[in-house]
Specification:
Number of strands: 16
Order of helices and strands: EHEEEHEHHEHEEEEHEEEEHEHE
CATH superfamily: Glycosidases
Number of domains: 1
Helix content: 25-40%
Largest sheet: 8 strands, parallel, barrel
């Protein structure tokens, strides 16, 4: 799948995955028991709802849809250059919306931050400790914000567009987490996020791809596991949730958006060829096609899916996504369709399922011991 804001600091063409990747048959989901706990996970069996992923879309969401998501998503990057860690305290736009983590947090008080950290083209520098100053600077900033921060380190590590070497990636992930902990940064958790996407085809049928395990850096340095949910395929997501359950790690759907749908125009296009599939779709039809299965999957796996981050944006207006080179992304803004907005707000109003921000937010989550 094409990388969205992941390409902020690391734009790369999409390639088909190497056919040598290991593939295994999908297994049944492991037996679900009580909710998997973890640092900053909601108490009980609730799930965080987070919105992203730039200033304008977060501002519009809290003004027009839901004023109190439990967090917001933003992005930055680590490298050995002094020109890194953009988007933490000042605005910058790489063609996918203006990001500024500090401003976005101000829009959603009493909440948490989910920060994607690009490490593309920096793996060797990180491992060789040439990025320690950048890591320390990031740690100082995290301490200063005084709220829970989820670090998606090298997000979508197994996406072909990132081209992360598994062994170097594991070492870089371990070093970033270990150094931040050693420096006494206690208000962050690490998120190991797979693209949960595959491309290999065999005999005209897609193959299940569980090669994400090749990038596993170790139970001791992974606090949360993460997925992306765009063009959903149950097999690889089930395999990933099984893996998370076996490791006792909570899962965040770290990037979710109805790719290929335009909620404003009421239509859908083929994701990668822009071939028109349906000129007209009502909000109800889009809800049934994408949103209903999305929420059903979350509810069916609420024991392990403990956070969900929705990308609420008009992709078609952003330079990175409006050319068609990275596929058709459309418009995922909830407020663009009255029916979808009504159903969406009703779903998020279920207090037994969702944790939203409030003055008591910190008392409703697990704190790192």
């Amino acid at each position: 799948m094409v990388s969205r804001m992941r390409t902020l600091l690391c734009v790369a063409p999409v390639n088909v995955r190497d056919k040598t990747h290991k593939t295994l048959k999908p297994r049944r989901l492991l037996k679900k028991v009580k909710a998997i706990e973890g640092p900053f996970a909601p108490l009980g069996k609730k799930t965080h709802f987070i919105v992203g992923q730039d200033i304008d879309t977060v501002r519009e969401f809290v003004r027009e849809v839901l004023p109190n998501p439990s967090g917001t998503t933003s992005y930055t990057g680590i490298s050995s250059s002094s020109c890194c860690l953009h988007g933490l305290e000042s605005a910058i736009d790489y063609g996918a919306g203006t990001i500024d983590a500090t401003t976005q947090m101000e829009l959603v008080p009493n909440s948490m931050l989910v920060l994607g950290v690009c490490i593309k083209n920096a793996l060797e520098d990180i491992v060789m400790r040439r990025c320690d100053k950048s890591i320390d600077k990031l740690g100082d900033w995290i301490r200063k914000v005084s709220r829970p921060v989820f670090l998606r380190i090298g997000y979508e590590f197994d996406g072909a567009w990132n081209n992360y070497d598994p062994e170097l990636y594991k070492l870089a992930f371990k070093w970033i987490v270990s150094r931040l902990r050693f420096k006494g940064v206690h208000n962050f958790v690490s998120v190991w996020q797979s693209a949960t996407h595959y491309t290999p085809i065999e005999n005209g049928r897609p193959k299940i791809d569980r090669s994400f395990m090749n990038w596993w850096p170790g139970t001791d340095v992974v606090d949360w596991m993460g997925t992306s949910y765009f063009n959903f395929d149950r097999r690889i997501h089930d395999a990933f949730l099984n893996f998370a359950r076996s490791k006792g790690k909570p899962v965040m759907i770290a990037e979710a958006s109805p790719q290929g749908y335009d909620l404003e125009l009421g239509m859908t296009l083929d994701v990668f060829t822009n071939r028109r599939l349906s000129v007209e779709l009502t909000g109800k039809e889009i809800w049934i096609r994408w949103f209903k299965p999305f929420f059903r999957y979350i509810n069916d796996n609420r024991d392990v899916i403990r956070a969900v981050a929705y990308i609420n944006t008009s992709w078609k207006t952003q330079q990175m996504w409006n050319t068609g080179e990275n596929g058709f992304w459309g418009d995922s803004r909830i407020q663009a369709d009255a029916y979808i907005k009504e159903k969406f707000v009703k779903e998020l109003s279920n207090e037994s399922h969702w944790l939203l921000s409030s003055p008591e937010f910190m008392s409703k989550i697990h704190i790192r011991p």
